[in-house]
Amino acid sequence: MLLALLLQATAPQTAIDVERAFDAAAQAEGQWTAFRRYAAADAWMFVPEPVNAQAWLKDRKDPAQSVRWSPTHSYVACDGSLAANTGGWTRPDGSVGYFSTLWQRQTDGAWKWTLDHGDVLQAARPAVAKPAVQRAACGAKPTEIAFAPCPSTRRCRQGRSADGTLIWDWSFDADGRQLTVMLWTGKAFETVLQDEVRSGR
Length: 201
What we know:
With 201 residues, the chain is of the alpha+beta class. Helix content is 18%, strand content 43%.
């Protein structure tokens, strides 16, 4: 029991904390090793097509140097069950880009990522010492939003936090992919992330 309490006390408490721990693990243990350890069993990533992350990462050798990344913004459901982080990354070759990661709180209190998304950029996103955190409004029950049917030419996934205050959806087809994250304000859902990536990236 004491060991469990100690482990819980040292575990990352927020989505920002776990994002930073994830990056630190990638530098210390290896890029794909860290990706495997922090990914949920049903996590998705884009390579560039959508794949089950654990299946794609299985037995994949770590590169000599890992990509580095840091969060700049975190959007969190009222109940804390789900969060979306976004920020910038830098590869060892100096190329830069952005990432958006969905994090799901597990029954044991740990965080696992369920979606890894992003793209290259011409200029790096400035790193910040204290990422901005926006939490969904609590109190008023969120409006039910029906997700649009997924066309037969696209692959789509949607989901929401346990309390319904954070919703997300992604889609992929021959033209590219997109990710949308919306947060409940108490009166309506506000789009807080809108990633659009053209085909081949």
